[in-house]
Amino acid sequence: PALEITLIDCSADEAQAALLAGRLDLILFAAAPVRSGIVTRKLLDLPPYVLAPLGHPIARGRVTLADVAAHPLVLLDLPVAEPYVTALFRERGLAPRISARANTTEMVRSMVGAGAGLAVLNMRPRTDRSYGGEGLASVPLPDDLPPITLLVGRAEGRPKRAVAVVQDLLLGWANGPKARDLIVSQKG
Predict the structure, then answer these.
(1) By the 8 A CB rule, do 32 and 79 touch?
(2) pLDDT digits (tens, 9 = 90+) for 51-88
(3) What is the four-CA torsion angle of 147, 89, 135, 106, rounded to 10 degrees?
(4) Percentage helix, strand, coil, to 5, in the chain?
(5) pTM higher than 0.70, yes or no?
(6) CA-CA distance, 149 to 153, in Å (whole number)?
């Protein structure tokens, strides 16, 4: 009762700094180097997938990164996402043709819906529509590609009761069906 939750959207580095400074009690972040003094628990492994406009030829079968590299790419330009996606291509000897960069998932989805290119993302929203109303397809990539890991973090030491309760709720959610709906893979 009377628990107040304030959400702040920031980079993983900013979130870790705020946690260690005592400005935040709990953080959710994509795996990045974890600073000393932070205890983490894994919530989800999020494999990469291709986001394509509905009806795009790439949405009709098994897709590889080489297939994606043959098309323009809209890149999510964030501190963890950008190096992750470019490394996926580079480590396979591929060079994506980046047509646009955006710093929010919503903008990437809108640009893909508008036909600016494909995107490689890791967490599927619950809607298959862009903000512009265009249909989007989430196409699995091969399961051997490394995922991004979503973590929950708190400062070392005994957590406040509210922090422990919220962390336990998040861990329970991560093991349930609603969390699995966010994962796009060839297995499911």
Answers:
(1) yes
(2) 999 999 998 878 999 999 999 999 999 988 999 999 99
(3) 70
(4) 30, 25, 45
(5) yes
(6) 12
